[in-house]
Amino acid sequence: MMEHLLIQKCKMSAIGEMMEAIVHQWKQPLSTLFVIAETIKYDLENEDIDRTELEENVEHIIQQIKFMSATVNTFQKFFHAGSNEDQFDVKAAVENICSMLSDALLKNMITVRLITKPERDDLTITGNPNELQQVILNMIINSKDAIISRRKSEENPLLEGLINIEIKRDEKRLTITLTDNGGGVPADMIDKIFDQYVTTKGAESTGIGLYMSKLIISKYKNGGITVRNVENGTQFIISIDA
After folding, report:
1. Domain 84-241's class?
2. Nearest to 142 by CA among 85, 113, 183
3. Interval 207-228: pLDDT, tens
4. Which of 35, 91, 129, 217 is the least crowded, having the fewest Cβ atoms under 10 Å away?
5. Given the DSSP bridges, would you call strands 161-169 and 110-116 parallel, antiparallel or unpaired?
């Protein structure tokens, strides 16, 4: 029961990030819809209606609304508190989170590169896809914050942010490796980074994101997360039997 409540608390702590992502995802479509509406209004006022142009504008409106509707559905599924286990594609789950955060990452000049082996590799596992996506979300947000912090500490606002996510599978194990260039974790913190309420972000953080990530991954057979500092950044490795 306590573990379930902590997972829900961790999800709630991510709502701010998700709401920001929704704003970024919707900003451009809303701007486009406004321009189209202004164009149609102008044409009506001047009695200068071209049927072909009107049909094109209506189709454009429909496409923008479909995109916005799909965005809402994606976020709604993420926050669904279901606990059912299903077989799912890990690559698709990671792509889903990257898509949700794409505009926010672009705003912060951060590129995410997803690396997988040839398509013949089976990257499906059995588990709760929403919870795994929450783990990936936590890690990407941590990497984003670390990159922004490095820019400030080095007084280099134009530093290119980079997050590499590699998914691979051998005969027995599936691994997800996330590597960033956020400057790394302080040496005195790295052994405690998965402890409850431990954070490197200061008072604005709850310190439960990585703790819950470790709990979620531990549900999988021989599941675990390790962390280490690499050149200019941090590397997280999720490994599970699959």
Report:
1. alpha beta
2. 183
3. 467 888 888 898 888 899 999 9
4. 35
5. parallel
CB atoms within 10 A of CB 57: 17
pLDDT at 9 over 80: no
Angstrom distance (rounded) from CA 79 to CA 22: 13
Provide the token pair at 196.
């409850």
User: Tokens for 99?
Assistant: 């898509």
Residue 97: which of 174, 29, 25, 162 has the closest Cα? 25
Q: What stretches of 46-87 show up as alpha helix (H) in DSSP? A: 51-79
The residues with which 162 forms a beta bridge, in sequence order, are 111
Integer Cα distance of 30 and 28 in angstroms:
5
Q: Quick one: which of 205, 214, 217 has its CA closest to 241?
A: 217
User: Which among 66, 115, 72 has a CA at the least distance from the CA of 94?
Assistant: 115
